[in-house]
Write a structure and sequence with these properties.
The complex is a heterotrimer of chains A (about 130), B (about 190) and C (about 190). Chain B has helices at about 15-20, 25-45, 50-65, 75-95, 120-130, 135-145, 150-155, 160-180. With about 190 residues, chain B is mostly helical. In chain B, α2 (about 25-45) crosses α6 (about 135-145), α4 (about 75-95) crosses α7 and α6 packs across α8 (about 160-180). The chains are: A mainly alpha (about 130), B mainly alpha (about 190), C alpha+beta (about 190).
Chain lengths: ~130, ~190, ~190
């Protein structure tokens, strides 16, 4: 096969840039690695006298809110972990089946190949 | 994860990989920028649509983000990205989803390659490539776009080496025939 | 106290004597290959016991034709185990480990379906099935090439045609279960071992 068509293919298949905002969108869609930040936001800090007066009921309300959010977050995290584990297992399953069919293919090719023809005894191979 | 100003990210690519593995967002972003054209192009040439190619590329980098710890070297990173992009594209093409289409975009807004070439030939070749079966198309993209060797393509696509060679040979023959048939070239130009 | 020492030695030896005793029928013991994984340029390790396999099947995408076929296949399976290693140089892996696996497949019930040796490609492929009650209950494949070897063990009721349908492009040699005959698969003389 001539080099021309291969060179044409290489020219036709130069890399193409994605849209300018592609990287920004990738970064935006990354899952957060940070732990729950709601706890820090809800934790009552040392405040002036207004907080001193209202701290007990506010702290209680904040704690309840945190418990609900945290509980939901943990349930969501567990569901996400289960889903990730399931997706990973299914990926491994497909990978295993791919390897299996590839090796069966090898065996089939070897079986289908005609046996080599034995050279005549008097032939002088250099 | 610590967020670092992009200007502070080092130019040394090995350091980028190390920093990205440690959770440095700017370093990961720099790695994305380095490889986005390659991954996006694989998606585009496999799926034939910009939007699908963008979705695929997003998925690939998301998978990379989750599996950064298993990437050992920059060479491994490049190979891993190509392998995942090609296999994901094959999987998507095999799904009977409406968004996965064999036809190529006809819009001309793609960033033109900065190389002198016949745009008619380029478009025609791209169209003909889209008519190949998914596995054969992936082999051709990895060979002629990414310049991978036959053995590397075989590893990337979990295919025997001989099957890769067959795909290349048959695809070139088919492309040649279609180009002559489409009167893009005469049979004397492509012996 | 001598008899206590003898008894203890015997009890300690029992697990070694019955090496596969704890494994389900049709599952072979695969070496860890820990050192090989470091030397390999690429490795595939899949260990899906019944629980993980069930989980994997649930997460397959039935709208994908290949995954839908895989779903049909894995309903009758109880385990899938794969070890595949690719190297940058020829024969970087020890034959002894592979021979150890082959020895397990010479045990009762196992039948070698295909023995393929290719002098040209230096490829050896052996396909075994465990026959029980006239059906294939387990499949094992050992494939070695100069820069790659793979061991596959699929446990459960095997429908070879379903397995073949995954790729769709190749045929699996016919298994004549009734007579126990194997097809003539040896097309090239064995050149190794």
């Amino acid at each position: 096969m001539s080099q021309d068509i291969e060179n044409e293919l290489r020219r036709a298949m130069r890399a193409i840039d994605p849209p300018a905002d592609f990287t920004a969108r990738v970064m935006r869609n990354l899952p957060p690695r940070a732990t729950v930040t709601a706890i820090a936001a809800a934790r009552p800090a040392a405040r002036p006298s207004l907080w001193t007066r209202l701290s007990a009921p506010v702290a209680l309300a904040a704690s309840l809110l945190v418990a609900i959010v945290l509980g939901q977050h943990m349930a969501t995290q567990q569901a996400e972990r289960q889903q990730l584990a399931g997706l990973e297992a299914s990926r491994k399953l497909m990978q295993a089946l791919r390897v299996t069919s590839q090796k069966l293919d090898l065996a089939y090719e070897a079986v289908q190949r005609p046996p080599p023809v034995a050279p005549p005894a008097e032939e002088n191979r250099s | 994860m610590s967020v670092v100003n992009l200007q502070a990210a080092p130019d040394d690519s090995s350091s980028l990989l190390r920093l990205a593995r440690d959770g440095n967002a700017a370093a990961f972003e720099a790695l994305v920028r380095q490889h986005q054209a390659s991954v996006f192009s694989i998606g585009y040439r496999m799926l034939g649509r910009r939007d699908a190619a963008e979705d695929l590329a997003q998925d690939v980098f998301l998978q990379l983000y989750r599996r950064l710890d298993s990437i050992e070297t920059l060479q491994h990173l490049g190979f891993w990205l190509r392998r995942v992009a090609a296999n994901l594209a094959i999987d998507w093409l095999r799904r009977p989803a409406p968004s996965a289409t064999q036809a190529l975009d006809t819009e001309a807004e793609l960033a033109a390659p900065e190389v002198e070439c016949d745009p008619l030939m380029t478009r025609a070749l791209a169209r003909l490539l889209g008519e190949l079966a998914p596995a054969a198309r992936a082999v051709m993209v990895l060979r002629y776009q990414e310049d991978l060797e036959v053995a590397e393509i075989a590893t990337a696509l979990d295919m025997p080496v001989n099957t890769v060679k067959s795909h290349i040979k048959r695809s070139l023959t088919a492309l040649r025939g279609k180009m002559i048939g489409a009167q893009l070239v005469s049979s004397e130009e492509l012996p | 106290m001598k008899w206590i020492t003898c008894l203890a030695t015997l009890l300690l030896a029992v697990p070694a004597l019955g090496q596969n005793r704890g494994l389900p029928k049709g599952q072979i013991t695969l070496p860890e290959f820990a050192q090989l994984a470091d030397k390999a340029s690429e490795s595939v390790t899949v260990t899906l016991d019944p629980q993980l396999l069930g989980l994997a099947c649930r997460f397959l995408d039935s709208s994908d034709p290949q995954q839908a076929e895989a779903q049909k296949l894995c309903t009758s399976l109880t385990g899938i185990y794969v070890r595949k290693y690719t190297f940058d140089t020829d024969y970087a892996y020890p034959k002894s480990d592979i021979d150890g696996v082959r020895k397990q497949l010479s045990g009762p019930g196992w039948s070698r379906l295909v023995e393929a040796r290719s002098k040209k490609d230096q490829t050896d492929v052996d396909v075994y099935v465990l026959i029980d009650g006239g059906k294939a209950r387990s499949l094992a494949i050992i494939a070695s090439e100069p820069r790659e070897f793979a061991i596959v063990n699929i446990v459960g009721s095997i429908d070879l045609e379903q397995l073949h349908a995954l790729e769709g492009n190749f045929g699996v040699p016919e298994l004549e279960l009734e007579t126990g005959k194997k097809p003539t698969a040896e097309k090239a003389p064995a050149t190794k071992k």
